[in-house]
Write a structure and sequence with these properties.
This protein has 12 helices and 12 strands. The strands form 2 sheets. It has a 7-stranded parallel β-sheet with strand order 8-7-6-9-10-11-12, sandwiched between helices. Helix content is 36%, strand content 15%. The protein folds into 2 domains: 129 residues, 3-Layer(aba) Sandwich (Rossmann fold), CATH 3.40.50.720; 191 residues, Rossmann fold. α1 crosses α12 and α4 crosses α6. It is globular. The chain binds nicotinamide-adenine-dinucleotide. The site of nicotinamide-adenine-dinucleotide has 29 residues, from α4 and α6.
Length: 334
């Protein structure tokens, strides 16, 4: 029997990549544009498999409903899984899988793109030259060569990012709860968080969001950092306490902020709100700073990553259906 997968938060590119790579698998695909949450869960009918993304709300309440409807598999088409209540899923007998690694280079390269844009102000130069303004005033940058970069979290993405910044001639310090010997051999030095806060010119966040890391960038950690610090977050919005970072930007403690993720992003990102009045005052304030660059969770968005996301998601689901297991243990969350 053909198995149906119901997708939530579907964008046109999800549809085209999943349809393209379904030839080898032959699933029936059903696409909903809406986010999965308590209000939309009733759209699900006659399906044992749901496929969700970063901002779908898969809490205990939603999971209870999914179980009532006979859902057996929740397939995340992303790496982070902070939006899924794994304990509730386990209790309900629902297996949860994810795509643990899909082109970590895509995210690491985007983090570097943010650094280069904030530093060399190419976004401003682009607009300026189009208006025949060839002046350099206000575009002054700094050499990355020789600067100290602190990386928090050296998993797949942090490691790819470490190699990029080493290539730029930076001194690289890292903090992780477990060390990676490959990057140590390349010249990365593991340090305490405090040392990184104190010594880094640029800090890039690549650890997951959990109880230990939530709001790790806050008033106290910001106060330990160098003045004019550059902070880059391509991981999860909840790593940063937003009111605290706004204060630090106003005080010029933070000199540059690049965020691809935002704690309240589920109401904003992946949508065209150009005709709407945005009610979120924090994002409006952040976007008003000339030294803040916001991208809307696009770090993963490359052809290679979308290909891997589609094929790995289908493989995960096939493996769970045929033998209730997945070889890549990092893909199976419960
Ligand atoms: P990963 O699991 O390979 O690496 C995470 C690393 O963080 C691990 O080495 C882990 O030991 C470390 N870590 C865990 N707790 C920590 C702590 N308290 N302090 C410091 N380090 C800690 O994950 P990854 O593939 O490198 O992804 C990292 C994060 O990037 C994901 O959690 C996800 O939230 C985010 N992400 C964002 C995008 C995007 O498009 N912006 C895309 C993919 C992933």
């Amino acid at each position: 029997m053909t198995q149906k997968i119901s997708f939530f938060s579907t964008q046109s590119y999800d549809k085209s990549f999943f349809e393209k790579y379904n030839d080898n698998f032959g699933f029936e695909l059903e696409f909903f544009e809406v986010q999965l949450n308590f209000r939309t869960v009733d759209l699900i009918k006659n399906t044992a498999i749901v496929c969700v993304f970063v901002n779908d709300v898969v809490d205990a309440e939603v999971i209870e409903k999914l179980a009532e409807k006979g859902v057996k598999i929740i397939a995340l088409r992303c790496a982070g899984f902070n939006n899924v209540d794994l304990v509730a899923a386990k209790k309900s007998g629902i297996r949860v899988c994810r795509v643990p690694s899909y082109s970590p280079e895509a995210v690491a390269e985007h983090a570097m793109a943010m650094i280069l844009t904030l530093n060399r102000k190419t976004h401003k130069a682009y607009n300026r030259v189009r208006e025949q303004n060839f002046s350099l005033n206000g575009l002054l940058g700094f050499d990355l060569h020789g600067k100290t970069v602190g990386i928090i979290g050296t998993g797949n993405i942090g490691k790819a990012f470490a190699k990029i910044v080493l290539g730029f001639g930076c001194k690289v310090l890292a903090f992780d709860i477990s060390k990676d010997q490959e990057i140590e051999k390349l010249g990365v030095r593991y340090e305490t968080l405090e040392t990184i806060f104190k010594s880094a010119d640029i800090i890039s966040l690549h650890c997951p969001l959990n109880d230990k890391t939530k709001h790790m960038i806050n008033k106290s950690s910001l106060s330990q950092m160098k003045d004019n610090i550059m902070l880059i977050n391509t991981s999860r919005g909840g790593l940063i306490n937003t009111p605290d970072i706004i204060e630090a930007l106003k005080d010029a403690k933070v000199g540059y902020l690049g965020i691809d993720v935002y704690e309240q992003e589920e109401k904003l990102f992946f949508k065209d709100l150009s005709e709407d009045i945005i009610q979120d005052d924090d994002i409006q304030r952040l976007m008003s700073f000339p030294n803040v660059l916001v991208t809307a969770h696009q770090a993963f968005f490359t052809n290679e990553a979308l290909t891997q996301i589609a094929t790995t998601t289908f493989e995960n689901v096939s493996n769970l259906i045929t033998r209730n297991d997945i070889d890549n243990k990092a893909a199976l969350l419960n």
